[in-house]
């Protein structure tokens, strides 16, 4: 059967840029259908800025911000959150320390006040530090021999040797053991600063009340000092294969090559190409060849990873030890075939139709919208990006795809890491 | 195409969010062939979530064919006479839709999310595979390999999952909730085309299905489109019977251990056999929901405060309750020992803490805080049309009603301190429990 392809052409949601009296900028979507407010924010600066021999500081900082602030110790702070069903969380990645706040409208004042305290007046009580340290170390031990975690860690070590991106964002047992209160205070000072934060707010709150609340939270942030510069990096060890020996019946595989950053003008064609190769749908080439036709794996796919100072294309799968060689051959062949002959016109059109049509699906909850907006702001793509994005996808031609293939597939030489006990390689 | 084996693997709480009384205007009706329909309007974005739930899950797998419900879920993507393998997925994808499916103990569900104007196309395809599945012998082998790889990924490479499986098998002496959703390795290896078709013919019928549409739609549209599509599927006369043995009254406190060289961080888990939404009497189910939140829901819970904050014996501790089940179900208490604390010491401390829970944990503030959080979660869930579709679909699939879902926050509010004490005293008993240790090889 032929289905008529209809797509949503309008921008999926109406976003307004606001600047508060104190100069805080925010992207705002007002929607009063559900009585909640979702806030997402991201501060420039993350694990890449950890002290050289102490990976894990930024992540530990993110875990300590809600462990006591202002006059409240950890337990009192958590009790205030819980008593109002306010959900507040922080996380740290390579380039950023981000967070998320969700509250019922009726508890908005309390929620924004607790956010202010967490950002501006975290206590870093020694007791809380020791507890979070113990939790982090237990978490690291728990994952110590998980094949997926081990494969990923080794992939970054080999892909970015000597570079901050090569270090584990969660640190190691040794480094987490060594982190001091002063390390946390220094990292907090370096990251939580004015001009370094992007904010998006979605929900049942009008512009006036929102700007008032945001000024209370973000209006008094200290001035930013420059962060350590992260040198641009290119994925190393392409063409090399590394094995992490682990006594398990199935090997977890990570593979990668060079990529294109989200901010790069050629990103969208690469994104379309990756969708054809190994994007999320059941129709991707890797899904079809590795899973559907051969039953080699349950999950297989690829994605474009974009950091501030590096970009890569990377993929994942897991197959029983006896079939690792076959699986890797299929993946490499598929990548080279896609680069050599390119997708068919029909395949390209269908990929574009999917990406255009599915964009709106990412805008169906307040939290999702807030997080998408804050990412767009963080990447500097502009507030009109969500309105422009689908026309960028529609405009992609076979020529664009060929150029993108040079950059994200290239010579097809992959950095490959296998965690397990593969046979017959 | 996932086994909702996540039900098996998770250590956090099952989703409890439900629509508050007076939440979205949910409608329901039945087609002439017996198919139940639920419509949940959400007009914020021009998107619809389309789900079909079948009232059969892994607990309905015939003896010796564990994993057949889940295997069939995978095979449902292999095409029909009218639409060969892969065509449905290609259309969903070209329309900018997303799709998947999952299998749980009591149900199997299929869904697509797409722009609202594609709803009819989704319905045509989903209705078609309700009765016209074609299984060519050539697709069976590779797809079974996929499922075996899925099991290797989720279980065979992960000692914590192996402990979860062993604990469930030990908790349920007789009931099939003790068998993993994905099935046992040696039985999956033997599943074939005949098993799959027999199972399909028994359970995939309009009387056994529930259609849930959430999103930018009206009841009239859904009714018209459903009549035109699902309405054409021939009824079988009656809903298939699910035979579920009853669990005997437990008498033995059980202890089991998984030791594996890969384990570097030991953990402790305890499961209790307790009533579910399907079997609970009076307010027991709501009381257990609230009890899990009071004693084990996050860093202000009783277990966390006692074991982590006060005594420093654990780095984490909590509890969850899986209310959504047709028959007797699990209530879990877990703890992760601090460095230098043995699992035996930790277990003794958990027992001591639980012994004092009724006297110490059930203060007014703690109960109010837990109620606030549970009720708020139900409001938060109305922010997501797919969450709502899942909440209503799963409730109906286990025999609850729309009214049950709508009343849930009111029932939670109505739970009294004495109700909490009563369920704790009647159900959190050693003889109803299995205690599991995950530890390194000595």
Please describe what this structure looks like.
The complex is a heterodimer of chains A (425) and B (442). Chain A has 425 residues and is an alpha+beta fold. Chain A has two domains: 16-218, Cytochrome Bc1 Complex, Chain A, domain 1; 241-420, Metalloenzyme, LuxS/M16 peptidase-like (Cytochrome Bc1 Complex, Chain A, domain 1, 2-Layer Sandwich). In chain A, 41% of the residues lie in helices and 19% in strands. In chain A, strands 1-2-8-3-7-6 form a six-stranded mixed beta sheet, sandwiched between helices. In chain A, strands 9-13-10-12-11 form a five-stranded mixed beta sheet, with helices on both faces. Chain A has a two-stranded antiparallel sheet with strand order 4-5. In chain A, strand 1 (16-19) and strand 2 form a beta hairpin. In chain A, helix 1 (57-64) packs across helix 7 (181-191), helix 9 (267-278) crosses helix 15 (398-408) and helix 12 packs antiparallel against helix 14 (385-394). The longest helix of chain A has 18 residues, at 324-341. Chain B is α+β, with helices and mostly antiparallel strands. Chain B folds into two domains: 2-232, Metalloenzyme, LuxS/M16 peptidase-like (Cytochrome Bc1 Complex, Chain A, domain 1, 2-Layer Sandwich); 254-439, Cytochrome Bc1 Complex, Chain A, domain 1, CATH 3.30.830. Chain B is built from 17 helices and twelve strands. Chain B has helices at 6-9, 68-75, 87-94, 119-131, 137-156, 159-171, 185-188, 193-203, 219-228, 284-296, 302-310, 343-355, 357-360, 364-381, 385-397, 402-414, 417-427, and strands at 2-3, 27-30, 36-41, 47-54, 98-103, 108-115, 209-215, 254-259, 267-274, 314-321, 329-337, 433-439. A seven-stranded mixed beta sheet of chain B has the order 1-5-6-4-7-3-2, with helices on both faces. In chain B, a hairpin with a 5-residue loop joins strand 2 and strand 3. In chain B, helix 2 (68-75) crosses helix 8, helix 10 (284-296) crosses helix 17 and helix 14 packs antiparallel against helix 16. Chain B is globular. The relative contact order of chain B is 0.18. Mean pLDDT of chain B is 94; it is low at 2-22. Chains A and B meet through helix 2, helix 4, helix 10, strand 12 and helix 12 of A and helix 3, strand 6, helix 5, helix 11 and helix 14 of B.
């Amino acid at each position: 059967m032929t289905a008529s392809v209809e797509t949503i052409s309008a921008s999926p949601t109406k976003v307004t840029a606001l600047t508060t009296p104190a100069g805080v900028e925010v992207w705002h979507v007002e929607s009063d259908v559900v009585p909640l407010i979702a806030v997402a924010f991201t501060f420039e600066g993350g694990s890449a800025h950890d002290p050289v021999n102490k990976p894990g500081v930024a992540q530990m900082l993110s875990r300590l911000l809600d462990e006591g602030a202002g006059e409240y110790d950890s337990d009192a702070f958590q009790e205030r959150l819980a008593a109002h069903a306010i959900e507040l969380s922080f996380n740290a990645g390579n380039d950023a320390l981000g967070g998320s706040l969700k509250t019922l409208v009726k508890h908005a004042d309390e929620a924004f006040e607790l956010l202010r305290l967490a950002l501006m007046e975290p206590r870093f009580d020694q007791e809380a530090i020791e507890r979070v340290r113990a939790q982090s170390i237990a978490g690291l031990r728990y994952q110590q021999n998980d094949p997926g975690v081990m494969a990923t860690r080794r992939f970054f070590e080999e892909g970015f040797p000597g570079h901050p991106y090569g270090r584990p964002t969660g640190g190691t047992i040794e480094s987490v053991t060594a982190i001091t209160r002063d390390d946390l205070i220094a990292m907090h000072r370096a990251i939580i600063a004015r001009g370094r934060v992007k904010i998006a707010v979605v929900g049942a709150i009008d512009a006036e009340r929102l700007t008032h609340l945001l000024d209370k939270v973000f209006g008094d942030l200290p001035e930013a000092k420059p962060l350590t510069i992260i040198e641009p990096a290119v994925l190393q060890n392409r063409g090399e294969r590394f094995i992490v020996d682990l006594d398990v019946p199935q090997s977890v595989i990570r593979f990668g090559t060079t990529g294109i950053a989200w901010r790069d003008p050629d990103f969208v064609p690469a994104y379309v190409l990756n969708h054809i190769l190994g994007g999320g749908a059941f129709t991707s080439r890797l899904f079809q060849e590795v899973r559907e036709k051969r039953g080699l794996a349950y999950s297989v796919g690829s994605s474009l990873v974009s950091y501030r100072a590096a970009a890569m294309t990377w993929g994942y799968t897991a197959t029983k030890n006896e079939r690792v060689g076959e699986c890797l051959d299929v993946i490499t062949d598929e990548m080279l075939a896609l680069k050599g002959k390119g997708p068919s016109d029909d395949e390209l059109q269908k990929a574009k139709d999917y990406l255009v049509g599915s964009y709106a699906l990412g805008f169906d909850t307040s939290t999702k919208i807030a997080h998408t907006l804050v990412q767009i702001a963080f990447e500097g793509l502009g507030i009109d990006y969500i309105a422009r994005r689908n026309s960028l996808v529609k405009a992609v031609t076979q020529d664009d795809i060929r150029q993108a293939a040079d950059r994200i597939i290239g010579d097809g030489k992959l950095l490959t890491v296998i965690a397990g006990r593969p046979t017959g390689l | 195409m996932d086994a909702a084996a996540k039900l098996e693997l998770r250590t956090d709480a099952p989703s409890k969010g439900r629509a508050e009384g007076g939440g979205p205007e949910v409608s329901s009706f039945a087609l002439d062939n017996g198919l139940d329909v639920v419509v949940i309007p959400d007009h914020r974005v021009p998107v619809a979530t389309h789900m079909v739930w079948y009232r059969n899950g892994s607990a309905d797998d015939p003896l010796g064919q564990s994993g057949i419900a889940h295997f069939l879920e995978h095979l449902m993507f292999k095409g029909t006479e009218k639409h060969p393998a892969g065509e449905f997925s290609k259309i969903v994808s070209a329309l900018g839709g997303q799709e998947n499916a999952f299998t749980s103990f009591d149900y199997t569900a299929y869904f697509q999310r797409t722009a609202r104007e594609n709803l009819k196309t989704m319905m045509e395809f989903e209705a078609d595979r309700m009765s016209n599945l074609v299984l060519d012998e050539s697709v069976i082998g590779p797809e079974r390999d996929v499922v075996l790889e899925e099991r290797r990924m989720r279980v065979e490479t992960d000692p914590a999952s192996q402990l979860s499986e062993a604990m469930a098998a030990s908790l349920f002496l007789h009931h099939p909730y003790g068998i993993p959703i994905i099935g046992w390795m040696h039985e999956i290896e033997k599943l074939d085309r005949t098993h799959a078709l027999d199972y399909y013919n028994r359970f995939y019928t309009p009387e056994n299905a529930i259609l849930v549409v959430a999103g930018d739609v009206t009841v009239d549209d859904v009714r018209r489109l459903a009549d035109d599509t699902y309405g054409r599927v021939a009824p079988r006369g009656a809903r298939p019977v699910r035979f579920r043995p009853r669990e005997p009254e437990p008498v033995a406190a059980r202890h089991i251990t998984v030791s594996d060289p890969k384990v570097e961080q030991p953990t402790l888990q305890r499961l209790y056999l307790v009533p579910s939404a399907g079997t609970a009497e009076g307010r027991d189910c709501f009381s257990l929901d609230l009890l899990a939140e009071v004693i084990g829901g996050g860093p202000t819970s009783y277990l966390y405060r006692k074991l982590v904050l006060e005594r420093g014996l654990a780095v984490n501790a909590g509890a969850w309750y899986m209310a959504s089940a047709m028959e007797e179900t699990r209530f879990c208490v877990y703890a992760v020992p601090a460095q230098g604390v043995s699992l035996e010491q930790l277990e003794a401390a958990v027992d001591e803490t639980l012994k004092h829970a009724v006297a110490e944990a059930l203060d007014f503030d703690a109960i109010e805080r837990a109620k606030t959080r549970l009720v708020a979660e139900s409001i938060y869930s109305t922010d997501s049309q797919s969450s709502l579709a899942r909440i209503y679909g799963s409730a109906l699939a286990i025999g609850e009603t729309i009214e049950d879902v709508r009343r849930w926050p009111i029932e939670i509010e109505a739970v009294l301190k004495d109700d909490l004490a009563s369920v704790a005293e009647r159900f959190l008993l050693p003889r109803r429990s299995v205690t599991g240790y995950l530890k390194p090889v000595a």
